[in-house]
Amino acid sequence: MTLPQTASAALASEPKPQHPNDKMPDDLIAPASDIFDLPAMREALFAALPEGAGEPEVRKITVGLLSDAQKAGRAAIAAAFEAEPFGARRTTRSYTWLTDGMVRLTFEVASQVLHQLPNPTEGERLTVMAVGGYGRGEMAPFSDVDLLFLTPYKITPWAESVIESMLYILWDLKLKVGHSSRTVKDCLRLGAEDYTIRTAMLEHRYLAGHAPLAKELDDKLWSDLFNGTAREFVEAKLEEREARHLKQGQRYMVEPNVKEGKGGLRDLQSLYWIVKYVHHTDDLSKLVEQGIFLQHEYESFCKAERFLWAVRSHLHLAARRANELLSFDMQVEVASRMGYNDRGGRRAVEWFMQDYFRHATEVGDLTRILLTSLEATHTKGAPLLERIFKRGPRVKAGYKVVRNRLAIADDTEFLNEPLNLLRLFEEALRTGLLIHPDAMRLVKDNLQLIDNGMRDSKEAQKLFLGLMLKHGNPERALRRMNELGVLSAFIPEFAPIVAMMQFNMYHHYTVDEHTIQCIWHLSEIENGKLEEELPVASTILEEGLNRRVIYVALLLHDIGKGRDEDHSILGAKIARKVAPRLGLSKKESETVEWLVRHHLLMSDMAQKRDIADPRTVRDFAKAVKTKERLDLLCVLTVCDIRGVGPDTWNNWKAALLRALYRQTRRALEGGMEDLNRELRGTEAKKVLREKLSTWSSTDLRQETGRHYPPYWQGLHFTAHVVFANLLKDIAEGEIRIDIHPDPDRDATRACFALQDHPGIFSRLSGALALVGANVVDARTFTTKDGYATAAFWIQDSDGHPYEDNRIPRLRDMIRKTLMGEVVAVEAIKPKDKLKKREKAFKVPTHITFDNEGSEIFTIIEVDTRDRPSLLFDLTRTLAHQNIYIASAVIATYGEQVVDTFYVKDMFGLKLHSKVKRDQIEKRLRDAIALGSERAQG
Questions:
Q1: Residue 705 is part of which domain span?
Q2: Residue 596 DSSP SS3
Q3: Which residues pair with 739 in a beta bridge?
Q4: 99-108, 207-216, 889-898: lowest mean pLDDT where?
Q5: What pLDDT score was predicted for residue 824?
Q6: Residues 782 and 900 occupy one common structural domain
Q7: Closest CA to 879 of 754, 730, 738, 766
């Protein structure tokens, strides 16, 4: 088609639309004319359209001009937002204004130029409306543009053509457009069937076209669909919210989804939707007038909204696309954009994320308050329990049950006794009732009543300990107390760790949530729910231990985090003050202090040292001193590891801790002589003879005589049997491999028997690195007749044992590497890359040499940034320095790894020379630095 000869002049004189959206708003982050000068742009656009132009040329010119305007507008918004990084509301309005202008001019070109219709009939009317977030006027830099094309009756060919042309232009502008074409009747019918559609239309906004049709839709939505259906709408939104939280993770995860996660923007928007549907207003300040929100609660809402929108907008700009996941790499970038700085021993990103989680918690509080008001007006249905049981449990004097929730009978009387701020939680646990939001609000607004006098009160101490010790579900009370600020008010030293994020890939939760998770795991063990999975910890608790000590120790074990000082040392100092204040005796307080100071000791010994070495167990037993401390530390360690995250605990860690606990207990109860190497070697040989009863006495004599003493005490008898079969009749130059899953340890055991030569450990590490295997433990031994026996425990990249069907390929690739058909150094390079989200972490390298931790080996501990093929680089470096590696223990903590090597020099001696140790350290650091450059790409 061609542009009519008179169209340019006609359009130039076309009166400007007088609807509100054409008026330049004043609530933008930059001047409206800098973002998108609609009148000037209209004039320039129509002046640029030549007479007689065809549709392709019209579209090309339109897209060209609008694209330039879009880039300029985006640049203006981004620059102003950078200068005012918390100006979120005005930034979202600015992106809306920019989008409005492009959509409106696109409609004018499509309807008045490309498909001009001088005398439209009644049915040939078309209205363009914004819906959803765009309709609300809130747009992040790369938000979807949701449009509703509204027609009076069935869509006409003319309207279809206009819509099609508009969409092509908008798509050419790289806008992500969600669109629908409906009549008013369609909107009512579909809105009645689908709450997602109903919600989108709740926030409709007229953009262009036939304005009376937009008014008709608005009137009929309220009269025929919205009015009288508030209760069902609220229920639907709450069900949707619950499902969303389950999908995203109910607790505050360290990589939250800003839009969909708990306490995120979708939760805020749900409040908006409910308020608009129920109270017919977009202005939440009206809820203050109605007494639903207090003024400070409304202000908290505004702060949370501004903060979350700022985060989302910065996230989009940093990613240069629509991205809602606040991943680790994006957290660093967004924190920088929002002006956070390193201070007080913590990184800027950790301060930023602490603010994020505090605002997310505030959103949850506000949601509860609003829902309470809805219940009071019967807009929201009663809780499920109330529907099942009409009569609730009996409550003590001073309380009442309101809609199956524990409520306060008289606010004034309740506040006259500050101890009631703790008694409320006790009554909730005793009755099993949820606390009424009005009661929670009363507590939160009167935290000043929890003063030093109350903290020192024997009754308060008894109440607080009772919350953890008496009712079987302490985490429920602790979590609610934490959210309301009671926990920090009663234990002020707890306040700094509330919502504190640890910027690493190991911890899944904030520090306060991790602490509560640990206490939940302890209660689960006490309640007998984990006997099969945790036999040692369950038995310890069944036999009895000081519950006051273990619960308080767990509550305080990470209380020193986030400061410059070592958190275990600082935490012990804090525990020395807090434990007596919680009512513990002097002896109990000393034990709590010891546990907090050494809460990582058992984990470190089990995961970073070779527990087959008698010195490891001996040193640990000397540090622990008593069985009571061993039992307490074992239970605390198990709960601490399990509280890190859902996938942190596994059979490998369980097996290590069980072995360390049992050996240490035996040493404490029977004496250190039980750890004697010779005794253990004699026992191991006896077991092997029993397992190989079909072998001839000659073969058995050869097998038991070919190994040095460390071999017998360094491996389980199952590995002794495997190696005996691998070594039997082995030919010179032959490589024998046995790979089998070891389900008891959540790993795959790979055993190798081959002729010994320098650097054998490194070659095996390279072969395993090439197939993508993560080594979690390894040890090598040399036989008296010149063979190497090496056992590696490996996992795949997801931390799981290799499945049976993957083992043949694994074996084949390892064999090719060992035979020299594949050169590991070269083959590994393309695979040796970190994922983008992992590059934000900084892990300083620490290398230590310990000549006291083993009787016959020097222990080299390398604590550094984990990455693919790190173990290969380290072992290759040691091999080049003529260092013999007897065993390696690998402990991984997210992005951090501690590789521990038990080594000797080429003469079979410990590394006594400082000059030699310094040389080795330099070479190791060089290898780490070179590999890090490779991994960073």
A1: 696-936
A2: helix
A3: 750
A4: 889-898
A5: 65
A6: yes
A7: 766
Q: Are residues 40 and 184 in the same domain?
A: yes
Are 140 and 313 contacting, i.e. CB atoms less than 8 angstroms apart? yes
The residue type of 124 is E
Backbone φ and ψ of 511, nearest 5°:
-60, -45
**Cβ atoms 104, 240 nearer than 8 A:** no
Q: How confident is the model at residue 324 (pLDDT cuts 50, 70, 90)?
A: very high
Quickly list DSSP for 653-689. HHHHHHHHHHHHHHHHHH-GGGG-HHHHHHHHHHHHH
> Of all helices (H) and strands (E), which one includes residue 135?
helix 132-136
Cα–Cα dist 189/259, whole Å? 29
Amino acid at 756: D
> Scanning the structure block, which residue is given the tokens 């991790």?
514
Q: How far is CA 283 from the centre of its chain?
A: 33
Q: What pLDDT, in 10s, does the model give residues 673-709?
A: 655 555 667 888 899 999 999 999 999 999 999 998 8
Contacts of 506 (CB under 8 A, 6+ apart): 644, 645, 648, 893, 894, 895, 896
DSSP string, 545-556: --HHHHHHHHHH
Same-domain status, 220 and 238: no
Three-class SS string for 60-98? HHHHHHHHHHHHHHHHHHHHHHHHCCCCHHHHHHHHHHH
Return d(Cα 937, Cα 935) in angstroms, integer: 5
Q: In this structure, are 747 and 874 located in the same domain? A: yes
Q: 196-232 in b/e burial notation, b at 16+ Cβ within 10 A?
A: ebbbbbbbbbbbbbbeebbeebbeebeeebbeeebee
**Hunting for tokens 């009671």 — which residue is that?**
486
What per-residue confidence (pLDDT) applies to 380? 60
Count of beta carbons in the 10 Å neighbourhood of residue 55: 17
CA 691 to chain centre: 47
Specify the residue for token string 């003590």. Answer: 396
Strand partners for 795: 774
Distance CA 281, CA 265 (A): 19
Let me know whether 778 and 820 are in one domain.
Answer: yes
pLDDT score of 1: 38
891-936 per-position pLDDT tens digit? 888 888 999 999 999 899 999 999 999 999 999 999 998 876 665 5
Q: Same domain, yes or no, for 223 and 239?
A: no
Specify if 537 maps to a domain: no
- Distance (Å, rounded) from C-alpha 387 to C-alpha 215? 41
pTM: 0.84
| 887 DSSP 8-state letter | E
Overall domain count for the chain: 3
Same structural domain for residues 884 and 790?
yes
Under a CB-based contact definition with an 8 Å cutoff, are residues 789 and 781 in contact?
yes
Q: Are residues 247 and 146 in the same domain?
A: no
How far apart are alpha carbons 302 and 309 in whole angstroms?
A: 11
Residue 73 counted as domain residue? yes
